Amino acid sequence: MVPGAVALGALSGLMYGVVKAPQYAATSYVIIVPADRTDPGTALGYAQAYGRVAIDVAVRADAAKDAGVAPDLLRSNVQAATSPDAPMISLTAQAASPESATAMADSVAQALVRTSTDTQAKTGVKVLSFSSATEPSAPSSPSAGVAALVGGCAGGLLGGLTLLVRPRRTEEDGYAAVPAPASASATAPQKEPV
């Protein structure tokens, strides 16, 4: 049962790896710097705030149009992550092509820079582009071989779990009919009394 489940899982994983289009990821970075006479700790607080609203700000600032994609696609394929100890935000975009992933990450970063320029007088911080996204040379999605290995492991796990949860044999089912071994007293010749 387990070998069959492993084979089925590996075959399923291989099929998924072959059929699924590769995904590429590109990351752009922005940094939040304090303006004149602003406490440096304020920049870290605003980095956390900008990180939470980065995608919404970018959609409102026409980043999707700049990247040449639909706003819903930009919203679902770009993730923002804020560093806990530095006022920096990483913007990672995933797409079916390296060019599209790079364009989405850079357009969101530029939208944040433009938006912060408009609000700099109120916030006391500004967002600067720290690093533009570089075009990925290899997909970030797993290859067909890795998908087959993961599928095989999942199949083995499910096959093993199936063996654990199947019904057990009870006493009512009976035991296999196997003759008991002969005892030494039953087979030894008896001495007759004299």
TrEMBL record:
Segments of this protein annotated with the region Disordered: 172-194
Biased amino acid composition, Low complexity: 176-194
Domain of life, per lineage: Bacteria
The protein's name: Lipopolysaccharide biosynthesis protein
Organism in which the protein naturally occurs: Streptomyces beijiangensis
